[in-house]
Amino acid sequence: MKPPVYILTELGCEKRCPKCGEYWPADGTFFGLRLSGLKAGLLRGWCRACELEYKRAWRAGTVG
């Protein structure tokens, strides 16, 4: 069984990043916003840290 995507804590609503598995506050500080398409305005899937890590690896040519 998969862990829940959103949980409610004393800090408020938190979202799980599927890449790192950590829960972060569900806001634009920790998750980017989708800018176009049908899901525009919703939070992106990966947290900002995982997206940055992936982009750096892709630029370095280590992602295949």
What is the topology?
Layout: E1 6-9, E2 12-16, E3 23-25, H1 48-60
Antiparallel strand pairs: 1-2, 2-3
Q: Approximately what portion of the residues adopt beta-strand conformation?
A: 15-25%
Gross morphology is globular
Number of strands: 3
Q: What is the terminal separation in angstroms?
A: 29 Å
Q: Main β-sheet, in a few words? A: 3 strands, antiparallel
Return Rg in Å: 13 Å
Could you give the order of strands across the largest sheet? 1-2-3
The amount of helix comes to: 10-25%
Number of helices: 1
Class based on secondary structure composition and strand pairing:
alpha+beta
Order of helices and strands: EEEH
Contiguous uncertain segments of 5+ residues: none
Mean of pLDDT: 91
Brief summary:
With 64 residues, this protein is an alpha+beta fold. It contains 1 helix and 3 strands; from the N terminus they run βββα. It has one helix at residues 48-60; strands spanning 6-9, 12-16, 23-25.
Please describe the structure with a list of short key phrases separated by commas or semicolons.
1 helix, 3 strands, 64 residues, single chain, three-stranded antiparallel sheet, alpha+beta
What does this structure look like?
The N and C termini lie far apart (29 Å). The chain is globular, with a radius of gyration of 13 Å. The protein is α+β, with helices and mostly antiparallel strands. The model has no long low-confidence stretch (mean pLDDT 91). It is 20% helix and 19% strand.
